[in-house]
Design a protein that fits this description.
The protein is α+β, with helices and mostly antiparallel strands. Helices cover 19% and strands 25% of the residues. Helix 1 runs antiparallel to helix 2. It comes from Cercospora berteroae.
């Protein structure tokens, strides 16, 4: 899965974002952002939402919240690469989707990242 390529930030580097949200909880909020092939996005969203991502902590009980932006990614595999797509040394462009969602609490953020890796 191409999305695995883009998980380069260790969990220790997760940083909470701040935004004014009506909430009765004091848990930290994180924004999870990843890139994926369009055909894989539904399965990936299902996995991260099952891990608890995408739940808005405000009134209304919103779940599975996120934002998707289509685009074109570019990369050039190096000499030591074993590319799933493209060839070593040649620039490749592929359609992909940038997806972002909220994770409330460190445990949810870590679980969502683990779900993303699978």
């Amino acid at each position: 899965m191409l999305a695995r390529t883009f998980i380069q930030t260790p969990l220790s580097n997760l940083r909470p974002f701040t935004r004014s949200m009506a909430s009765s909880t004091a848990l930290e909020r994180y924004k999870l952002i990843f890139f994926a092939p369009p055909q894989d996005l539904p399965k990936i969203k299902e996995a991260i939402f099952a891990a608890g991502a995408g739940r808005y902590p405000g009134p209304g009980g919103y779940t599975e919240c996120g934002f998707a932006t289509p685009g074109v990614g570019q990369f050039r595999p190096g000499d030591s690469a074993n590319p799933h797509i493209g060839e070593k040394g040649k620039v490749e462009e592929v359609g992909e989707v940038r997806f972002e969602t909220i994770c409330v609490g460190t445990d949810v953020a870590k679980a969502a990242v683990e779900a993303l890796k699978k």
